[in-house]
Amino acid sequence: MPSRLAPYGTWASPLTAAAVAAGGLRLSAVLFDGEDIYWLEGRPREGGRYVLVRRGAGGSMADVTPPEVNVRSRVHEYGGGAYTVHERTVYFVNFADQRVYRLEDGGTAAPLTPPGAWFYADLEVDARHSRLICVREDHGDPTREPINALVAIPVGPAKAGRYDNFDDAPLSAGEILASGYDFYSTPRLSPDGSRLAWLSWRHPLMPWDGTELWVADLDDTGASVNATLIAGGTRESIYQPGWAPDGTLYFISDRDGWWKIYRSGRSDRSIEPVVRNAPPDAEFGRPDWVFGTATWRFAGPSRLVASYTRKGRWHLATADATSGRLADLAPDLQPHDWLAANATHAVLVAGFAAAPDAVVRVDLASGHLETLREASTERLDPGYISAADPIEFPTSDGDTAHAFFYAPRNRDFRAPAGEAPPLVVITHGGPTAATEPTLHLEVQFWTSRGFAVVDVNYRGSSGYGRAYRERLNGRWGVVDVADVVNATRYFSTAGRVDPERLIIRGGSAGGYTTLAALTFHPEVFKAGASYYGISDLEVLELDTHKFESRYSHSLIGPYPEAKAVYRARSPIHAIDRLACPLILFQGLEDKVVPPNQSQMMADAVRAKGLPVAYLAFEGEQHGFRKADTIIRSLETELYFYGKVFGFTPADRIEPVPVANMDA
User: Is 525 part of a structural domain of the chain?
Assistant: First the structure.
């Protein structure tokens, strides 16, 4: 059929907001237990509940955890590492009470920890001592910040019955194995169970700034003795320590400016790189926002499966631990944060350029890929999919920044001659995170309606080396804003987008960059959308959770010494410069960016007389997980842009009140 003529933004798309929400299945935390494969699924249609799924050796697939359970940890608020499995016995953290439970194969779940103010994460089975080793976060004293430690929890026989009915059973909050640091992560046992490795760090560092790698012996009683510092410090970020089958300690370090794989000699404690033919700008690590992520695993005595990134694109490879030779594997997929392996296969959560994220199993000999579970059943015709175009563009200070550009694409429509598309600029969260060029249905939601999209990996993003990450230090709200502004100018100057219809949107830290760009560069953008974004840096500094409570000290400056800088870079104090309509979205149970941040901004914009809409959602935390919330947010954002720019979307959308615009 010939394409129809219609203005950009008004194109009818088969990718509805409901389809985006249905495709929002969050796949994570893959794990092998013998021939069984496990993973977590965050299901928007079940209120965002995380469900543990098992695929048996014969191919059968079933939910493991009961409908009442949400497998999710709140340690660091971002969680991760919320379950592990040993010989078909599952250990998991339930979100509602943050207690650890044991679930026997075919049985019912029993608690291992008592009710209280303890959160747990990063579970590791110590079969030799019949216990779990994990990170515990103690919230028992509201007058001080939580206390983190490594603890051991006995996993002996427990009473049978329903998972939430064991308060009278003998339970343990955990025996402390290591304490004294502000943070702990990644407790990992050697193959024979005699040694324990872990990471620790102190305020004001984040784990991508500097961590310490420790190893201790475990005596016959399970006590931790002879703790030894192996690597790391305030200027070296260690990621994912683990063990080879022969008991050699492996880990990732950015000691040369790029996250690479290293190993430590047991006797002389020498440290040497493992992969010798990797490109110099390859990175094998990721920022430790959540527990339990992995970029390498052993697959036999001397073979590793590893993932690495170059210029924002991730690759899967094998590496010979003896020769150091790296060889790419399954080039069509892009690994995400989770990876597991056995002698013959790798299992991972992977992204693709034109297909949904999926849990896949890769044959290490042939590279053959088997899809076990897809994040979406939505099948988009290629005629509606816009491919990511990697872009490097000049920015401030003579630097170069990175982005992925998506042109409008819909096989059913074409725009009138001479019309340029509106541009949606996306600012990712973190800010120490990154966007990747895999199929994002939310991006395709916009491009299939006639919007261009540029997804920016501004300075401070991970995947481009330590120096690129650190360009944001002391300059948050300056260089990230400069990068999104310069990305916008790069395309508008070239005539590829309409300079009168420039939009910026982002969530969390990306919401802050969005609000800062709108207020400090009012001449550039014509509309904006903030999802749980930060409007007042000083208020956030005084009201946020422990993990990020000193994050701003490196991004902005120490507080209160740099109080004036916090105020100067806060969008809430620059409302007089804001010159365009704004829509804000907020979860009312958000502990990372409290709801008052969005409420303050909405009130201030309304008082100034600019068009503003504010949607708050009960039961949502940091990052929307419920299908109804995702649908309403996307549709309302599209409706808002239609009102601002004077076009009528093809979608039928329930209107939202827009202050200072509605009659």
Answer: yes
